[in-house]
From TrEMBL:
Gene3D superfamilies: Peptide methionine sulfoxide reductase, Peptide methionine sulphoxide reductase MsrA. It comes from Desulfohalobium retbaense (strain ATCC 49708 / DSM 5692 / JCM 16813 / HR100). PANTHER family: METHIONINE SULFOXIDE REDUCTASE, PEPTIDE METHIONINE SULFOXIDE REDUCTASE MSRA_MSRB. This is Multifunctional fusion protein. Residues 1-20 form the signal peptide. Has an important function as a repair enzyme for proteins that have been inactivated by oxidation. Catalyzes the reversible oxidation-reduction of methionine sulfoxide in proteins to methionine. One of its GO terms (molecular function) is peptide-methionine (R)-S-oxide reductase activity.
């Protein structure tokens, strides 16, 4: 009976694939705690949505408790819905490697057992070959002291996890941040993918001259000066200081979401000002002692772009003013969110 039910689920899932939008594709990965993998991949440009769930076993529609017991054969996994015109499957693989420990055969960080091991689930021969090639390149790179052991297996089905697991990094931010810190995941990733060594993980900024030359060729002079040299654009003479359109603002270098028009206000300073970030995890704050004063600099996490500063003189509800250079931002109008790969933010602008 379970076998028949499982086959029925696969047929339904396949039918859904046939009617998918031509600008929408799916990919399936396992990398330990699905809260973390979902959070990392969902922030990538071109990714429309990431769903946490279970893959790899034969038990139909398992519960979290059943999977966590290690008896179902499933792994915690994610379904990535992406726009292949914006991000390729090969690039998704690169992002995936940069969010996991691919050398651990017994689990992932603090979570042990087969259910927390890593895997790429391929849906066709092209994906299998791309995954095998990508894994081989990573293994040969010498980045890790141990061999890359991530499994590459055929996709046999995906079962969404319980609702409370979805977007856990947003709905349970404190618990998620605490778990992630003590799991050791970020320490491992930062030690193996340092921001100035690998542009795909932390953004295109690099100490390497060729990377700076590439940025210089695709950014305007003021964009390069602000994001790469910590410059400041003129007040009241920039693209977005008086922009009142609904939409979101992303890093001009990396495309990571930073701020929303729903949190924008007129500070009278001549620069775009926001009460809070759209994605707090994409913002890094640092002490800035330049100009004979102590301020708090704001940078993007993936792009490592200088954005501006944050001050404690903003309006309620946060009392903060994120004073940001327009040159560090790219504005995505609300009507273009889906086509630009940021569909998950459309609900912010629904009446």
């Amino acid at each position: 009976m379970k076998t028949l039910l499982f086959a029925f689920v696969l047929i339904i899932a396949g039918a859904g694939q046939l009617h998918a939008s031509k600008n929408s594709a799916t990919a399936y990965f396992a990398g330990g705690c699905f809260w973390c993998v979902e959070a990392d991949l969902e922030k990538r440009p071109g990714v429309k949505e990431v769903v946490s769930g279970y893959s790899g076993g034969e038990e139909p529609d398992p519960s979290y408790e059943e999977v966590a017991s290690g008896q179902t054969g499933h792994r915690e996994s994610v379904k990535v819905i992406y726009d292949p015109e914006i991000v390729s499957y090969t690039t998704l693989l690169d992002h995936f490697w940069r969010s996991i420990d691919p050398t651990d055969p017994g689990g992932s960080f603090g979570d042990r057992g087969h259910q927390y091991t890593s895997a790429v689930y391929y849906q066709n021969e092209d994906e299998r070959q791309a995954a095998e090639d990508s894994k081989a390149r990573l293994d040969a790179s010498g980045r890790f002291d141990a061999p890359v052991v991530t499994a590459i297996e055929p996709f046999t089905g995906f079962f969404p996890a319980e609702e409370y697991h979805q977007d856990y990094y947003q709905t349970h931010a404190v618990r998620y941040t605490t778990y992630r810190f003590f799991s050791g995941r970020d320490r491992f990733l930062e030690s193996h993918w340092p921001k100035n060594q690998d542009s795909a993980n932390k953004g295109p900024r690099s100490a390497d001259n060729s990377s700076r030359e590439d940025l210089q060729s695709r950014l305007s002079p003021i964009q390069f000066e602000v994001t790469q040299n910590d410059g400041t654009e003129p007040a009241f003479d920039n693209a977005y200081w008086n922009n009142k359109q609904p939409g979101i603002y992303v890093d001009v270098v990396s495309g990571e979401p930073l701020f929303s028009s729903t949190d924008k206000f007129d500070s009278g300073t001549g620069w775009p000002s926001f009460t809070k970030p759209l994605e707090p995890e994409n913002i890094i704050e640092r002490e800035d002692r330049k100009l004979f004063m102590v301020r708090t600099e704001v940078r993007s996490r993936q792009g490592d772009s200088h954005l501006g500063h944050v001050f404690a003189d903003g309006p309620e509800p946060t009392g903060l003013r994120y004073c940001i250079n327009s040159a560090a931002l790219r504005f995505i109008p609300a009507d273009d969110l889906a086509s630009e790969g940021y569909a998950r933010y459309e609900d912010l602008f629904q009446e």
